[in-house]
Design a protein that fits this description.
The protein has 231 residues and is an alpha/beta fold. It has helices at 12-24, 35-42, 61-71, 85-94, 106-121, 158-169, 177-185, 194-207, and strands at 4-8, 28-32, 49-52, 76-80, 98-101, 133-135, 138-141, 146-149, 152-154, 175-176, 217-220, 224-227. The protein has a five-stranded parallel beta sheet with strand order 2-1-3-4-5, with helices on both faces. Strands 6-7-8-9 form a four-stranded antiparallel beta sheet, with helices on one face. The N and C termini lie far apart (40 Å).
């Protein structure tokens, strides 16, 4: 199975180009335009490595590094246009596994990624099995990526599962279309709400007794969607 790489950078063109190059090299690439979106994405699927820019809107890369390093133990390579030596020292002291200033050759970056993955693979702790989330008669198991409803298995596509899980992590809370796009599909799908609408419709066909009158997957007009036990 290919290694999963999460690219966190607010430069749209750079992010899109790098994700394409990583996929061409055989990696699974996901992207986020902010540290907050990246952290939300890791609650759904833990990446094998994070490529992290220091200069980000909102939470910066140094602060985000603490989460990736301390909370989920994912190796991090800093990618930044800032060349000050102090940034490199601080980043490495806080736990970054490598540091590569922009611009860089993609082949060199890929070599760094593979080296970090080899180096950290044996040192990473065994993951604790995440807890099953229950919302009403729905049970969502992020470990096996299985969903049951009233004890019966529900067959979902990978994106349908990711969408349901994103909503189940914060039941009763309305998640906006933009939040769902960022957490489930990544930053490259910004401004494409139709993909959310389509997957919501498919998901309702599988978990709602009457998809036209949903009681679990509720629309909040002009805002987004929420998952509830029943309504």
């Amino acid at each position: 199975m290919s290694a999963s790489v999460l690219v966190v950078d607010d430069d749209d063109l750079f992010r899109r180009s790098l994700a394409f190059s990583l996929e061409q090299a055989g990696f699974e690439a996901r992207t986020a335009a902010s540290a907050e979106d990246a952290i939300a994405m890791t609650t759904q699927k833990r990446p094998d490595i994070v490529l992290l820019d220091i200069m980000l809107p909102g939470m910066d890369g140094l602060e985000a590094l603490r989460y990736f390093h301390d909370k989920i133990g994912v190796p991090v390579i800093f990618l930044t246009a800032r060349r000050r030596q102090v940034d490199q020292i601080v980043g490495l002291e806080l736990g970054a596994d490598d540091y590569l200033p922009k611009p860089f050759d993609t082949d060199i970056l890929i070599a760094h990624i593979r080296a970090v993955l080899r180096r950290t693979k044996s040192a990473q702790p065994v993951e604790q099995r995440p807890q099953v989330i229950r919302v009403g008669d729905l049970s969502i198991d992020p470990w096996s990526r299985m969903v049951t409803q009233a004890g019966q298995p529900v067959e979902l596509t990978p994106k349908e599962f990711d969408l349901l899980f994103a909503l189940a992590v914060e039941p009763e809370r309305v998640l906006t279309i933009d939040e769902l796009l960022a957490r489930v599909w990544g930053a490259e799908y910004d401004g494409q709400p139709q993909i959310v609408y389509v997957n919501i419709r498919w998901l309702r066909q599988k978990i709602e007794q009457d998809p036209r009158n949903p009681t679990h997957l509720i629309s909040v007009r002009g805002v987004g969607y929420k998952l509830v036990a029943s309504e």
